[in-house]
Structures are given as C-alpha cells and as structure tokens.
C-alpha cells in the first residue's frame, strides 16, 4: 500500500490543498507512490473548492487545485494516514488534542522538511495575501519531504 499523507491547516482552502496539489505533482515527477489528502481543523469552508486567488496562483505554477473540496479533520484520520503534517503550530496543537490515545499517524510540522528556510510555520496567505511566497515555501518543504521519503 502507498504511504499515506494528510496535510492539515485551519480552513482547508489555502495552505493544505496547495500542499496536496504540489506534493502530488512533485511525487509523480520523482516516481514516489503516495496517497495524499488535506483537511482543515475548522468547519467553515467544508464542501468548498480552494480559495480563488490561491487556485490562480497555484495554477500559474502548474498545480490544478480545482477538483479539491474542503473537509474537516477527524480523529479517525490518525488511523487512515501514516503521516499528518500541520501547516503551523496552532494546527499542530489542535491535532495533538484530537489525536486518539492509541497512537496512529506520526504528526509533524511541514516546515520541519524545509530546515534551511528558517520558517517555523507556513504563513496563511488568506491573511498575508502573499500567495506566491507561501507556494515557494510549500514547494521547498515538499521536496524536503520527498528527500526524506526517498532515503
Ligand atoms: P487556510 O486559510 O487555513 O490556509 O485554508 C484560511 C482560510 C480561511 C479561513 C481561515 C484560514 N477562515 O477563517 O475563513
């Protein structure tokens, strides 16, 4: 079975769907078989496609996010995935609270895979409006993650 990765942010309409789209393309390019999904800790945008300006910035860099739909993360996800990756420390804290007693998926921050960047979180472009800056960091962390998985 392919290794299963879940990206988690707050709304599941900017950062985590972008990470899903970027990793899907980069994994295919490097021939790494992965099952990839994304979810939000919040439920405000459930059922919605990724945020328009985020989709357009991603599309320009070669990532089609149009078919993704937001969902809320659930405790069962810790048993459905091998690795759950949070976009910022607040997401990580919410996930630690949701984590079932019986372990399950490994839990990490996405910036752990981009140590040279100096970033300790993936900034939320819904608020910063820097969609390209966020995509650059996501691309860097995705390559770092694939390096770890290819070892
Ligand atoms: P995301 O950004 O967590 O990267 O999807 C957000 C988008 C919308 C909201 C929060 C975060 N919101 O509260 O509507």
Please name the fourth-level CATH homologous superfamily: Response regulator
Stated plainly, the CATH topology is called Rossmann fold
Major sheet details: 4 strands, parallel
- Spatial order of the strands forming the largest sheet: 2-1-3-4
- Integer count of domains: 1
**Ends distance:** 18 Å
The CATH architecture can be named as 3-Layer(aba) Sandwich
Shape: globular
Provide the descriptors you would attach to this structure in a database record.
binds 4-nitrophenyl phosphate; Rossmann fold; globular; 6 helices; alpha/beta; four-stranded parallel beta sheet; 151 residues
How does this model look, in words?
The chain is α/β, with parallel strands linked by helices and 151 residues long. It has one domain: Rossmann fold. Helix content is 42%, strand content 15%. It has 6 helices and 4 strands, in the order βαβααβαβαα. The chain has a 4-stranded parallel sheet with strand order 2-1-3-4. Helix 1 crosses helix 6. The longest helix has 20 residues. It binds 4-nitrophenyl phosphate. The site of 4-nitrophenyl phosphate has 11 residues, from loops. 4-nitrophenyl phosphate (4NP) binds next to loops.
Layout of helices and strands:
Layout: E1 3-9, H1 15-30, E2 34-40, H2 52-60, H3 77-80, E3 83-86, H4 89-98, E4 106-109, H5 125-128, H6 131-150
Parallel strand pairs: 1-2, 1-3, 3-4
Helix pairs in contact: 1-6
The chain binds 4-nitrophenyl phosphate.
The site of 4-nitrophenyl phosphate has 11 residues, from loops.
């Amino acid at each position: 079975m392919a290794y299963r990765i879940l990206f988690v942010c707050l709304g599941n309409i900017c950062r985590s769907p972008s990470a899903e789209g970027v990793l899907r393309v980069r994994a295919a390019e490097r021939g790494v078989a992965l099952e990839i999904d994304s979810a939000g800790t919040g439920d405000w945008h459930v059922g919605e496609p990724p945020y328009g300006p985020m989709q357009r910035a991603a599309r320009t860099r070669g990532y089609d996010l149009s078919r993704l739909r937001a969902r809320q993360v659930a405790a069962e996800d810790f048993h459905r995935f091998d690795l759950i990756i949070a976009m910022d420390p607040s997401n990580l804290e919410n996930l630690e609270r949701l984590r079932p007693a019986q372990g399950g998926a490994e839990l990490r921050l996405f910036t752990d895979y981009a140590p040279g960047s100096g970033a300790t979180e993936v900034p939320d472009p819904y608020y910063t409006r820097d969609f390209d800056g966020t995509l650059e960091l996501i691309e860097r962390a995705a390559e770092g993650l694939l390096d770890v998985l290819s070892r």
